[in-house]
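Ticket #4471: structure output looks truncated?

Reporter: J.K.
Steps to reproduce: submitted the chain below (286 residues) through the standard prediction queue, then opened the result file.
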Amino acid sequence: MTQPTDIRAEHLRTALSLAAAGVPVLPLRAGKVPFGNCHRCTDNACGGRPNMKTAGPCTCPGPCHAWAAATTDPNVIQSGAWRRAWLRASAVAYHPGGAWLTVVDLDDAAAVAWAHAALPATRTVPTTRGEHWIYLGSMQSANGVRPGVDIKSTMAYARYLGPGTGRMAKLPDVVRALVVKKPAVILPASLAVTVPVPTGGGQCPHRTPTYLERGIAMAEQRIAAASSAIHSTVYAAFLAVLSTHGRCGCLTDNHVNRLFTAAQAKGESPRHCTDAWTNALTTLGL
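Returned output as attached by the reporter:
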């Protein structure tokens, strides 16, 4: 729905003010959700991610990729594509991680009470049902780290609700620890080898063990070298390994665990690793 002129102007002024302070911004439409892919980016045609989880190589001039489109460039914010988005915007959002910030999103009174008891004081911003606690420093984002608590920092966006009150504190270890999972098996045994294993003792019939080792090492290096689009890189590495060795039965739990370990070292969760592996298997018809 088109917003009244004064509200649209206020959103734009707020966005420009935040950008001038080094905070990457983006418009949100009704429902506190980002604008979806434009026509040129529909169905991932641009190479970005339709669910806006990574930036991808897209250079679309509009606010088309959620947090990955957030910018501090006033020329972009006021450009034609963005101006059309501001006409429909219901709120201003920002990318906390891009400003080296972390937002602890407390969704209800119980979560706020927990924060007062467990977290060091910092800048707070009232929300509809709870509060945002903002710390200086970035980290991995995660939802549901405890009842009523989400972490919004890298690869996420937060709605801007005002400057808040209080002095911003350094991101404490107790917040970082909220997204650290207990040690677990990287890949369940039932998922480690879900491809047909031929007769012949599981030996690769068309590649030498050295070739397999080189392929795993190259996949590990590819993941480790990624500086952006981590989800896409991990999926592509898994797909490459499976496309070569997924049908011959030469992949072992050790090989798969090495790939998962490399992915998790770049910030991927065990669930994201399993999803990427499963999606690669499905794509290849395995």
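Triage note (M.O.): checked the attachment and the full token line is present. The chain has ten helices and ten strands.
Status: closed, working as intended.
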